[in-house]
């Protein structure tokens, strides 16, 4: 996680929440000091230690933070994640933003760890997608890694993915691939999304670097993997959830990407207790 970008994001989030000042904390407190703990209310995998330390230091350098849990570590119900001591006004002003972020990131890390356990196949990487919350992609993809997953593209400039709408607008996989080959350098991988055997054959003929089997059953994924040359990376995606993920165990693909682990994950319950 890039700390310069993190400080910029935190500044934006605090500006949104605090506005011209915290009317509640500023009306009640002056220079009073307090101490407290950030505590896990349910088990899971933690993510977000830098958000706590940098967030509070951004509000007031006099706040002392001691983190007791590292990113990626397992939490039990009641685990103390961090201890905080300093001006009570800024501790309370920063509470909501910091908790919102670490709850969401820990939820993603926890769900990702669950997915890795369910799949139980060291030969297949669990990857994220671009189905992230606008403004939080860097953080959510970091949380995905802390849960034991791997990152797919960070953005449209990371690599080429020729999807169904590209193919429909271009006329064919061959046409789309030819145009891409002319436009991008040799360092850029090209992935093609397919749904049928005919499309698979076209993607293989066009020498795609990666072929995604989109919205295919586990049986179809195994069939398509067997037809794909070993030098082509294969990915399964679309319609795969924690409920049916185990069906894809030992399917032979290199990657399974899961959008559900970022776009609809439930936040982990974490609180600040003074």
Automatic annotation (TrEMBL):
Pathway: Cofactor biosynthesis; NAD(+) biosynthesis; nicotinate D-ribonucleotide from quinolinate: step 1/1
Domain Quinolinate phosphoribosyl transferase C-terminal: 108-273
The keyword Glycosyltransferase is assigned to this record: yes
Domain named Quinolinate phosphoribosyl transferase N-terminal: residues: 22-106
GO cellular component terms attached to this protein's record: cytoplasm
Glycosyltransferase as UniProt keyword: yes
Catalytic activity: nicotinate beta-D-ribonucleotide + CO2 + diphosphate = quinolinate + 5-phospho-alpha-D-ribose 1-diphosphate + 2 H(+)
BP term (GO), one: NAD+ biosynthetic process
Its EC number(s): 2.4.2.19
Pfam families in the record: QRPTase_C, QRPTase_N
InterPro entries reported for this sequence: Aldolase_TIM, NadC, NadC/ModD, Nicotinate_pribotase-like_C, Quinolinate_PRibosylTase_N_sf, Quinolinate_PRibosylTrfase_C, Quinolinate_PRibosylTrfase_N
Function text: Involved in the catabolism of quinolinic acid (QA).
Protein name per Swiss-Prot or TrEMBL: Probable nicotinate-nucleotide pyrophosphorylase [carboxylating]
